Amino acid sequence: MRQTAQSLTETAAAVIRAVTDHRDLSFTAASTLARLEREGPVRLTLLAAAEGVAQPSMTQLVQRLERQDLVMRVGDAMDGRVTLIAISDAGRQVLAARRRSRDARLAELMAALPDDDQRALADAMRVVAPLVRRMLGGTARPARPARPARPDETPRSPERPDTGSDR
């Protein structure tokens, strides 16, 4: 089972590298945008930790993405002193275009397979896709603890700007 897991990991990484257009964004930049799209606005420190990079590196990346209008800084409705990093509409459009290009490239490669292999691959995807979804579900960032309301204030709802995310 361990060998199958290792093979699946290596294959997934190879597929992403092979079919992804790296001209406009690095893998880390695209991964960061995808995380922001999936999980919503987040503190820069948490974003760096989630992406496995040092905070200074994430700071530089976010500044580059800001200059390209792919991310923006937004206030935290729970704590006005905090600034969160959020994906912009332009960032969502760039991700969507990259996905369309990647999917078209992969479909082109798969179309060259014999029919039996195409069916076998479709069968394998029916097994692998739910596994990957469960795996991704475990990577969601933990919710920030709510700040207790002071006795003299009305509790606020934890509203966040609409990011287009389904979370």
Overview features:
167 residues; mainly alpha; two-stranded antiparallel sheet; 59% helix
Question: What does this entry show, briefly?
Answer:
The protein is mainly alpha-helical and 167 residues long. Helix content is 59%, strand content 6%. The chain is elongated.
Instruction: Look up the CATH topology.
Output: Arc Repressor Mutant, subunit A
* Beta content: 5-15%
Q: Main sheet?
A: 2 strands, antiparallel
CATH architectural category: Orthogonal Bundle
Distance between the termini: 33 Å
CATH evolutionary superfamily: Winged helix-like DNA-binding domain superfamily/Winged helix DNA-binding domain
Strand order across the biggest sheet? 1-2
> How would you classify the helix and strand content by structural class?
mainly alpha
The gross shape turns out to be elongated
What does the oligomeric state look like here?
single chain
Structurally, the number of domains stands at 1
Percent of residues in helices comes to 55-70%
Please tell me how large the radius of gyration is. Answer: 19 Å
Number of E-state strands: 2
Give the ordered list of helices and strands.
Answer: HHHHEEHH
Describe the structure.
This protein has helices spanning 2-19, 27-39, 44-51, 55-67, 89-111, 115-137, and strands at 71-75, 83-87. Helix 3 packs across helix 4. It has 6 helices and 2 strands. The protein has one domain (2-137): Arc Repressor Mutant, subunit A (Orthogonal Bundle), CATH 1.10.10. Mean pLDDT is 81; it is low at 139-167. It is mainly alpha-helical and 167 residues long. Helices cover 59% and strands 6% of the residues. The longest helix has 23 residues, at 89-111. A two-stranded antiparallel sheet has the order 1-2.
